[in-house]
Inverse folding.
């Protein structure tokens, strides 16, 4: 087995050493402005500086030993008490919740918390440093109706603190509609400065729901695990829901499609999360979102048992945000399934978030047009695209990492709803689709593809204002493993 350096090509661009220096963790994860809400709420800065962490529990979760003070049977109960105490007693320090080894089949919602104008962060940590021994696991997917969600999970939120209850009711209020991708998460974090340590968080949904988009198809079948290869099967393990300065350390995130989701509510203003010494697995777009996420010494495992079309990252970073997803000194591995042997998996594709009509490509639809609008909408043959959708270009950088044989070595990045590259790097176009966008490695590609269209819409993007690439690598090696 040998490790080989990667040469720069049009379909696999490598950045310069000078540009790579801008992706160091202390640069990417620096504060965009002066920290607010007190000096001790940010968990990332001490870790980057090597400052030892002291863990002293304020609350404990241990269903097997309820004799200890401030001990609870569930994680959500402990979070509820911590938030209630902080508000009633005026607590403004970080709150620590220790979790005993075991499996917890519950949703975990962590709301934002401020007391007297100060951010109050929460740390969830397992007592045992072996993350495999403390597991939070629920099977929940986007196709579940809100009514069914309420029936399954409502009792856990009956008497919770109002900010927690409000998070539950946002989902429950959807009634007989599907809960959607955003709400299909096992853990939902809105708490600035939140930490998770030594845990496994699993969405155990098995992709066995017969979704409407495949109900009448004869060309799809279940595999030996009862899973559908096609259909809408988003099932999120963790959602970082506009929380800033979030740290996951020694955490295992398990799922298939859409395992880890991070987002900001203001596309031109990012929030940042840091994943250190973590293990993340999945198959389709399993690390995705529009905010900034840094992965340091993590294992990123692609699974091929369900589908041969796998993508690690699906960023929708705004064009004005310098950093999207950054992998630093990571190992890209696979599950040894038969599909991995073909070497056709992808490092990622740029999520064209909420697109309905595309300004890209040449449409065969008579009279097709796509113009800038307040909303993204399509009713053949005309459509509109919102500015935030247009600007969701998606950014990924992979540096100093080891990339396994399952990833396409000639073209590890591909289109959104477009063609594909074969194992030798040859591009095979697909029929035009209204949500198509070609892979774009930088702002020059963006401007080249849309030059005339941008002028027609009265838009212009100065390439000097976006010097960093959308997609690039530096210092990686391909392996035979």
């Amino acid at each position: 087995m040998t490790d080989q350096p990667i040469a720069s090509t049009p379909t696999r661009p490598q950045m310069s050493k000078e540009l790579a220096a801008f992706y160091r963790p202390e640069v990417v994860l620096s504060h965009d402005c002066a920290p607010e809400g007190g000096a001790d709420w940010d968990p990332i800065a001490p870790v980057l500086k090597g400052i030892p962490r002291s863990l002293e529990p304020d609350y404990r979760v241990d269903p097997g030993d309820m004799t200890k003070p401030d001990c609870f049977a569930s994680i959500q109960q402990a979070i509820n008490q911590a938030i209630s105490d902080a508000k009633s007693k005026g607590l403004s320090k970080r709150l620590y919740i220790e979790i005993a080894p075991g499996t917890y089949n519950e949703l975990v919602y962590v709301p934002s918390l401020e007391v007297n104008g100060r951010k109050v962060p929460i740390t969830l940590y397992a007592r045992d440093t072996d993350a495999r021994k403390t597991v939070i696991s629920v099977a929940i997917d986007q196709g579940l109706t809100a009514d069914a969600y309420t029936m399954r999970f409502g009792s856990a939120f009956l008497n919770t603190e109002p900010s927690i209850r409000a998070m539950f009711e946002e989902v429950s209020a959807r009634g007989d509609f599907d809960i959607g991708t955003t709400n299909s998460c096992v853990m939902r974090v809105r708490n600035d400065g939140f930490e998770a340590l030594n845990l496994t968080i699993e969405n155990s949904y098995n992709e066995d729901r017969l979704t409407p988009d495949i109900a009448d198809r004869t060309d799809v079948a279940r595999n030996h695990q009862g899973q559908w290869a096609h259909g809408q099967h988003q099932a999120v393990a963790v959602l970082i829901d506009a929380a800033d300065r979030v740290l996951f350390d020694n955490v295992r995130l398990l799922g298939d499609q859409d395992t880890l989701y991070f987002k900001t509510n203001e596309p031109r203003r990012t929030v940042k999360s840091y994943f250190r010494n973590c293990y993340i697995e999945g198959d389709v777009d399993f690390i995705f979102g529009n905010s900034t996420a840094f992965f340091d010494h993590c294992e990123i495992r692609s699974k091929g048992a369900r589908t041969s079309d796998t993508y690690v990252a699906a960023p929708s970073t705004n064009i004005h945000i310098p950093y999207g997803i950054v992998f630093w000194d990571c190992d890209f591995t696979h599950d040894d399934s038969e599909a991995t042997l073909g070497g056709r998996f992808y490092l990622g594709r740029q999520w064209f978030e909420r697109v309905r009509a595309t300004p890209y490509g040449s449409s065969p639809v008579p009279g097709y047009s796509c113009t800038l609008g307040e909303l993204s909408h399509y009713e053949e043959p005309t459509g509109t695209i919102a500015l935030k959708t247009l600007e969701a270009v998606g950014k990924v950088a992979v540096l100093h990492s080891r990339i396994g044989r399952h990833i396409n070595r000639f073209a590890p990045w591909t289109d959104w709803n477009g063609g594909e590259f074969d194992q030798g790097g040859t591009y095979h176009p697909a029929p035009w689709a209204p949500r198509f966008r070609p892979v774009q490695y930088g702002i020059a590609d963006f401007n080249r593809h849309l030059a005339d269209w941008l002028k027609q819409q009265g838009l212009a993007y100065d390439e000097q204002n976006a010097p960093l690439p959308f997609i690039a690598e530096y210092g990686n090696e391909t392996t035979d493993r």
In short: The helical segments are 17-20, 25-28, 44-48, 75-89, 146-153, 162-172, 387-390, 443-456. Residues 75-89 form the longest helix (15 residues). The chain has a mean pLDDT of 94. Residues 454 and 460 are 6 Å apart (CA to CA).
